[in-house]
Amino acid sequence: MKRLVGETTKKARGLLKDGYSHFLVRVGFILLMLGLIVFSVYQLVSHIAVGLDTLRTQEITEQSYVSLDLFVFRDEEVLPSQGNLYQYHVYDGERVGVGAPIATAYNATQDTEAMQALLRLYAQRIGLADRLSGDTTPENLHAVKNEIDRAYLSLLASADGGHLDHAAGSAEQVRKGLAQYAALIGNTESTTESVSALKAAMASLVEGYPASGQINASKSGYYYYDTDGFELLFDVDKVMTMSPEEFLALTETSAQSYENGGAGKMVYSATWYAAAYVSLADVAKTAFAVGDSYDMICDNGSETKITMTVVRMEPTADGALLVFKANAMPDGFAFDRRFSAQTITDSESGYRIPNEALVSLAAPDGKTVTGVYILEGNVVEFRKVHIKVARDGYTVAATYEDVRIMLDALPEEEKDKLTADGWSYLNLNDKIITRGTGLYEGKMIS
Fold first, then answer.
1. Which of 25, 179, 195, 400 has its CA 20 to 30 A from that of 343?
2. H/E element holding 358?
3. How big is the CA angle at 101 (ends 98 and 106), to the nearest 5 degrees?
């Protein structure tokens, strides 16, 4: 009996032990499954970048400008008045040789302003016809059409901006182009008839008034109908010697008056100068240097571009006096004593990268490398960038081609140092990640 009870007790204990073991196995299995679920959820969450935004790498060219208020200095001479009415024999701004007849002076008694306006117009149109006579080859047809288009657009822009003087100049360029086009296609008879009619009209205007003088060129140069009263003040001989203070005082002076306005003026050289006083900020931003040339875009409605070279820079406590020289007198450009222009101070080309996309990683050698994360397929990868300039809210980085050129120019040991980390540089059309959380290299984006 005792033996039977003992065996029963042992079996009960065995069953209890086996049940407990099975329970532990089940609990362990459940815990294992929960762990796998938690790990899977963690892996899933860790591979999702919340609010992921990307931007294709694009190349930009960014230019900065500085505005200049320029005053013109030229080798010019006012011709003394010989009457109150002039019949011009050359067009405004025409280059004339020594002894060439420029104009005949008359003393009129009435309507001198209206008659002078007509005489100027007639002389300009006759001069235009003379200029066409030597440039009528068919090869110029395409160029003439382009010039007409350019002048027409300039006319519209000038008129829209309220620059009526420059609009008139552009209109004259359109007229010239149309007449030249007519000459090129063989319509020269009407031009000849028009010139004859204009000369007859000029003669009829001055008929009955005795000539009071004949104006001839004493030296070769360019003849202009008008004077502005600053010819003697803005003497070209002063431009390389005047102090900044003298220049600023000169810009505040009033125009002089000439008897009957003078008989026009001669400009004896195609070389001319323009001076400006520039603030310290603009001097620093532009880094003007004597001997450097700059393209000046003139703010005259037609956006004439003139290449000018710095020939003098005189610094002061607040800025600097700059003197530019030009060796060209662009056709149609109004040589006002004062004009505004813009010049490029800085030009940068490269990849535009938002500042929020920039990240820094530690390279194997311990150095910090600046770059961006990109999305290659569904994998996050790191790309280095070579920053050229930092702007407000973004940076301009060197292009992939520029970086390759830079690396190829380095000695091998220097090149190896820059490429030892194994990271590639940002390339065109890479998908830059501009926003995302939990990013790291190699991360899978689901």
1. 400
2. strand 358-362
3. 140
Taking the C-alpha atoms of residue 114 and residue 126, their distance in angstroms, rounded to an integer, is 19
Instruction: Give alpha helix (H) positions in 54-188.
Output: 112-132, 141-160, 164-184
Tens-digit pLDDT profile for residues 434-444 = 988 888 888 98
Report residue 281 as tokens: 């900020």
The answer for residues whose C-beta is within 8 angstroms of residue 247's C-beta and 6 or more apart is 71, 275, 277, 321
State both tokens at 87: 């019949």
- Per DSSP, helices labelled H in 352-429 are 400-408, 412-419
Q: Dihedral of CA 214/217/221/226: which sign?
A: negative
What does the pLDDT look like over 283-332, one tens digit per residue?
777 778 899 999 888 876 556 788 999 999 999 988 999 999 999 877 66
Are the C-beta atoms of residues 332 and 173 closer than 8 Å to each other?
A: yes
Rounded to 5 degrees, φ, ψ at 43 are: -65, -40
What SS3 class is residue 103?
strand
Give the separation between CA 55 and CA 239, rounded to whole angstroms.
Answer: 53
Write down the number of H helices and E strands in the chain: 9, 20
Predicted TM-score (pTM) of this structure? 0.62
